[in-house]
Design a protein that fits this description.
Elements lengths: L5 E4 L4 E4 L2 H12 L2 E3 L19 E2 H12 L3 E2 L2 H4 L3 E2 L8 H8 L5 E6 L2 E6 L5 E3 L24 E2 L7 E2 L7 E5 H7 L4 H4 L6 E3 L11 E3 L2 E2 L5 E3 L2 E2 L2 E2 L3 E2 L7 E8 L3 H4 L6 E7 L9 E7 L3 E11 L6 E11 L9 E15 L2 E14 L24 E16 L4 E25 L3 E28 L2 E24 L3 E2 L14 E23 L2 E18 L8 E16 L5 E12 L14 E12 L6 E18 L7 E19 L4 E16 L14 E10 L4 E10 L2 E2 L7 E2 L2 E11 L7 E8 L7 E4 L2 E4 L4 E9 L1
Parallel strand pairs: 5-8, 16-21
Antiparallel strand pairs: 1-2, 3-9, 4-6, 7-8, 10-11, 12-20, 13-14, 14-15, 16-17, 18-19, 20-21, 22-23, 22-48, 23-24, 24-25, 25-26, 26-27, 27-28, 28-29, 29-30, 29-31, 30-32, 32-33, 33-34, 34-35, 35-36, 36-37, 37-38, 38-39, 39-40, 40-41, 41-44, 42-43, 44-45, 45-48, 46-47
Length: about 800
């Protein structure tokens, strides 16, 4: 489902109206008890050909038809439930296509000014309905463009397109429109207003996205693109993602190993790529801002054949910019083409590719002279850098065998080449001359990730099942070379940032790695009247081998881990839009290293209990979520008191929290995102810090973003983000103060002959709040005020 749908409670059925105007028009007619609908095609759709639709459940076929044709389609879930459609070969008019889909069902499609309505067949063109009360619930596709901030569906919790209201887990969605309105480039910036999410834990560090969910880091272990893991190795050999190339970002909170294998216990961040869609708008945009920010980007697509079976989309970006920290570049080049092909009514193939180059600084740390933190940058403009080149290619394939079975397979292959060089401070002489040495990290990564699943839809008595049975596999090959060397000294008061620096020649590590991950999983989504039940089980295997090219075969290592994880959940849907739920889930994450006896460390394990309440007021595009959780991570490494210098896995960390979130398209003019998070995190078992708060985890987070569009094309927006204080060390003796950042924007939409043109001005950290975050002796600055002016044209 690509456009907004609305559920209407009638006697005895519930209607799904895919636009609010449609719901209002139908409601006004139904109040009188009689509806007269003219059976005529709306003029905008008269030239659109019916799309190819595979055979399968009628509800799914109708949703696919509406998505493929780009039309508004309304129907009653109670009326179509249990029915199947023979599918559609495509071509012909929309009316002919709908008639073919509904053949032998006893249903017909009636055309209205706001779209099509599927109703039981009646004699003649007029029919009677009992008086009804309108109660609408918004639902959207998890993969198509979402108009506004509200997203009704998500895919991360089930690997299927399901309403968030009916999911017994906490899920936050950041739509492409949110990303565009705030003019963010990084995924980290995009999720900053989501409940339970903390960003910027190391200040401004553009080398990777620093995202914590429920107090646990997701940077390395929970980075996903289109449901497939983006693997990493070493220190910085990891894939990067431009926010502009995403249709949405889904944050699934709590352990998710049952579907995704080894993962952070806090949750996962799933980036969903822009892909071909008839609902996607074309766009070109130019940007300019402070710190020499210059950016051009485009998003273009459409159909390549008359019937619309082959669609394409291409996203591109060029950015030449700097950050507020001296000599730190923010350059990027991106090209991401995609192609979707409806091969036949039962088979669809989508190809996704991406090529990206980026350059930024190697290390954003501040220099500490032993007594105080300074603003001095210790690097060299020509030597210090992070250069990364990456490309990926993959596909998403789906084939429907029958009304019951369909096969889905996603695959992606990619390569990342990274050069990371920086100058590290050593000693300070004469109170002003800083001695430095050079560090070079050269990392190459090659990966293949696949996920194959069989989706089975069937009934057992009153239970309606959607059973997902899957096998995923990932292969990662890495080459890591770390080196050091001499570097030139620098004067603190008259620094020269353009000195010759040789590439480091003393090898500290030269290692090749090969990793295989595989898992089999089973998850059943069950509907029983108004109950939504879920249960899943998974078994994982991980095999890792490292070849030490520096020290010989004696230093080569092999390690294997396996784990079983699971998830259960229950949710109840009330007529008034309330949906209480409860869930339990587990996770695992392999740990590197070994104890004093040389025994490899076991994976850490996560376990979460969650209670929540969701509320989607009928007829609105509003979702309110409240959740209580108790999350425990075990097998955490802590100091071995009997063998100093080694660790044991007797540690434990607990996060107990409350999350509140509101996302709403209050009207055509007003959109809102608000959240509050309380995380009572504690080290419950440790050799040294038991009873202390874990470092770098704030107790309180809060945010509010509001966008309001005034008449005559003018719009204003603003937001506040509060991050509470944190401890910078395990002993809780170093404390980082909390801070509040303000974001703001103003935009003007031209009309008349310039329809689709928008001029905007956005500012992050509007008040230029300067804040510092320190941990384990290293200190990082937050990003200063960033101002971007943009001119875009959409059509």
């Amino acid at each position: 489902m690509d456009t907004v749908m609305h559920s209407v409670n009638s006697l005895p059925a519930h209607f799904h109206l895919r636009t609010l105007p449609g719901a209002i028009c139908l409601a006004l007619a139904l109040i009188g008890g009689t509806v007269s609908l003219a059976v005529q095609a709306a003029s905008p759709t008269s030239t659109i050909a019916a799309p190819n639709i595979p055979a399968g459940p009628l509800e799914q076929a109708l949703n696919s038809f509406a998505e493929g044709a780009g039309i508004t389609l309304s129907y009653s879930p109670e009326v179509v439930r249990g029915m199947n459609s023979p599918g559609l070969a495509g071509g012909g008019s929309l009316e002919e296509g709908l008639a073919a889909l509904l053949r032998d069902t006893g249903l017909v499609a009636h055309s209205t000014p706001s779209g099509y309505v599927v109703m039981p067949a009646k004699a003649g063109s007029r029919f009677q309905l009992e008086p009804t009360t309108i109660k609408a619930t918004a639902v959207q596709s998890a993969f198509a463009p979402a108009p506004g901030y509200f997203a009704g569906n998500a895919s991360s919790a089930s690997k299927s397109d399901r309403p968030i209201l009916e999911t017994a887990q906490s899920v936050s969605v950041v739509t492409a429109e949110q990303i565009a309105d705030r003019k963010v480039n990084k995924v980290e910036e995009a999720v900053a207003y989501s409940a339970g999410v903390r960003v910027g834990s190391s200040g401004l560090d553009p080398r990777f996205d620093m995202i914590q969910v429920r107090g646990f880091d997701t940077t390395m272990s929970a980075d996903f693109l289109d449901g497939l893991r983006q693997p990493y190795s070493g220190m910085l050999a990891l894939y990067s993602t431009e926010a502009y190339n995403l249709e949405r970002i889904e944050v699934l909170k709590g352990p998710a190993s049952v579907l995704y294998g080894q993962i952070s216990p806090g949750g996962m961040v799933n980036r969903v790529s822009k892909r071909p869609s008839l609902l996607a708008k074309n766009e070109v945009q130019l940007q300019a801002g402070n710190y020499d920010h210059q950016q051009a980007q485009f998003d273009l697509g459409g159909q390549l054949d008359e019937d619309g079976d082959v669609l394409f989309r291409a996203v591109g970006l060029f950015r030449d910019a700097e950050y507020s920290i001296e000599q730190m570049n923010n350059d990027s080049r991106l090209l991401a083409p995609s192609l979707s092909w409806q091969i036949d009514p039962d088979t669809r193939l989508t190809l996704l590719a991406q090529y990206q180059e980026r350059e930024t600084a190697a290390s954003p740390m501040l220099y500490h002279d032993g007594q105080r933190l300074t603003d001095f940058w210790q690097g060299d403009e020509y030597f210090d850098k992070l250069d990364q080149r990456q490309w990926t290619f993959g596909y998403e394939f789906e084939h429907t065998f029958s009304d019951t079975f369909s096969l889905q397979q996603n695959l992606r292959y990619g390569q990342v080449d990274t050069t990371n060089q920086y100058l590290q401070p050593a000693t300070l002489t004469n109170g002003r001359t800083l001695e430095r040495y050079a560090v070079g990290l050269y990392e190459d990564l090659e990966s293949l990730t696949t996920d194959t699943r069989l989706v089975s839809r069937f009934d057992t008595g009153d239970l309606r099942h959607t059973l997902v049975t899957g096998l995923d596999y990932a292969w990662t090959d890495t080459a890591l070379l770390y080196a050091t060397g001499p570097g030139p000294s620098i004067d603190l008061y008259t620094p020269d940032y353009h000195q010759p620096v040789d590439r480091p020649g003393t090898t500290a590590m030269d290692r090749d790695g090969l990793e295989h991950r595989s898992g089999v999983y089973l998850q059943d989504q069950i509907e029983l009247d108004r109950w939504r039940l879920s249960a899943g089980l998974r078994r994982d295997w991980v095999h890792v081998r490292y070849d030490d090219n520096l020290n010989g075969n004696a230093s080569n290592t092999k390690d294997s881990d396996s784990a079983t994880t699971g998830q259960i959940g229950a949710l109840y849907l009330f007529d008034n839009g309330l949906a209480p739920y409860a869930s339990y889930a587990t996770s695992f994450l392999p740990a590197s290293g070994s104890d004093a006896a040389g025994k490899p460390f076991k994976p850490t394990e996560g376990e979460q209990y969650e209670l929540g309440l969701k509320y989607q007021p009928p007829g609105s595009k509003t979702l309110l979520t409240a959740s209580l959780y108790h999350l425990t991570q075990t097998n955490v490494q802590t100091r071995d008191r009997s063998n100093l210098g080694f660790s044991v896995q007797s540690g434990e960390q607990v996060s107990r929290g409350l999350e509140l979130e509101a996302v709403s398209d209050l009207s055509e003019r007003t959109r809102l995102v608000a959240s509050y998070s309380l995380n009572d995190a504690e080290v419950t078992k440790d050799s040294d810090y038991e009873g202390k708060a874990p470092k770098n985890i704030p107790r309180h987070l809060a945010s509010l973003w509001l966008d309001y569009r005034l008449p005559m094309g003018l719009g204003v927006s603003g937001g506040l983000r509060y991050t509470g204080s944190t401890y910078g060390d395990g002993a809780n003796t170093v404390k980082n103060e909390g801070y509040t950042l303000m974001d703001a924007g103003v935009h003007y939409d031209f009309g008349s002959g310039l329809d689709g043109v928008r001029l905007a001005l956005n500012a992050r950290n509007l008040t230029d709040k300067r804040y510092i975050n320190c941990q384990d002796g290293y200190c990082y600055r937050g990003e200063a005020r960033a101002v971007i002016t943009s001119l875009s044209y959409r059509w």
